[in-house]
Write a structure and sequence with these properties.
Elements lengths: L4 E5 L7 H14 L4 E5 L6 H5 L8 E4 L2 E5 L2 H22 L4 H6 L6 H16 L4 E5 L7
Helix pairs in contact: 3-5
Amino acid sequence: MSAPRTILYTGKGGVGKTSVAAATARRCAAAGMRTVILSTDAAHSLSDSLEAEVGAVPSEVAPLLFAQEVQAQTEMEHNWDAVSGWLGELLADRGVDPIVAEELTVPPGMDELFSLLQIKRHHDSGEFDAIVVDCAPTGET
């Protein structure tokens, strides 16, 4: 089985990324590709573009088309213990004081990290032929 095609739409806010991502995802599904479209933008508008209810878990919104609005905060809450534990151990192994290591385990960009982890899960699952990502505005990614 070949790896899914991953298509990222990035750029400034208000330029039509969500509309183009939704159109691309619909086209992929119409071509017979099992497709998932994800929004990593905290101000989700994918539901409006797809004219369907979209939530934190992929749901089928059309034949062969699944949609998901990544909830980075929810993902972070579900995965935080594992990530902070790993990062704390990594820092401690490098001689960083355990208290300092604990304080350093909340680096900027954690919400983006969890969005990337969600994309990776879809990629690794083998469930989809195409992954279309509607990224947050450039200043936020």
